[in-house]
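Protocol step 4 of 6: structure prediction from sequence.
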Amino acid sequence: MKTINLALTKKIAYTLTSIVLIVVISCKNASEKKANDKLGWAVLKKPLNNKTVDVNNKIVKITASLEFKVFPKRMETYGTIFAAMGNVSDEFLQEVATTYHQMFPQGDGIDIKKQQEVLNTFIQYGSLIPVLSEHHDSASEDTNKGLDEAFMSDKYSVCDVIMTNVERRQAMEVVEHLLHFITDIGLHFVYPEQWSFTEGNSEITKVMNTAIEKGLYNVSSYSDMVADGKEAYQRVIVQEFAYWLISTYWNLQEPYGNIAEQEWKVDNKKQLLEQLPSGYALVKNTVDEIMKAPSKEVLDGFKKYEK
């Protein structure tokens, strides 16, 4: 199988968007058909089941798994499977689970019915997040093959990965990639008019285009993806924008992000309201009714995993 340079762009070096490029560029056979059967080369088009998530069950078990050779650990919670490399610590996985739970609290101001619908999509559409113990730039051939296997599977929706042992912003490495799955699967299906990444008239797409026009969101680092897969390109630029939008609304960029990042020009919730009020309103009117930012305590805890 043909491979490509994973360090195509600055931003792709941060995330595993490059794995999408591997799928798009190199799979020109039966495997390509499988990927093309997914929305944006990542999300299953139809549900696998009608199972529901128990929002009160926050017990997390980490077990051995033989499904993917590269990912012998399996953690499943709130409808999502986390497939981890063997040397990813159980402690790290538990803290990821806590972060995930905190994003979906129950209590005053939360629309439990709508929240339940979003969580159910994860189990129904096979949400699976690979967790790497190494940076993708230095990933072995076996790791890349394992990632291809996960991304190409017709049993799972795989939008990105979580990496451990990053040099900085480990907390945002977790938050960002949890949000990719939440927006690509949960919000996409439950709030299609507002959050669909496939519809040009969805609110998220229109807000994103406004942000691009205003110079607030720079998508130039993804230009290499256009010719190789427009569906994947559209999903990626929308999911990245959704991450910037929600995390900024949650005031997480200044304490945990990279304010010098050239892709996004808004630092905090106040600036978001001033510079992109339509984006502020989108999050306030949808995300606020089902989600909250994870706590400072849990986010600060990820610092110990940084290099």
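Step 5 (inspection) to follow. The chain has 14 helices and seven strands.
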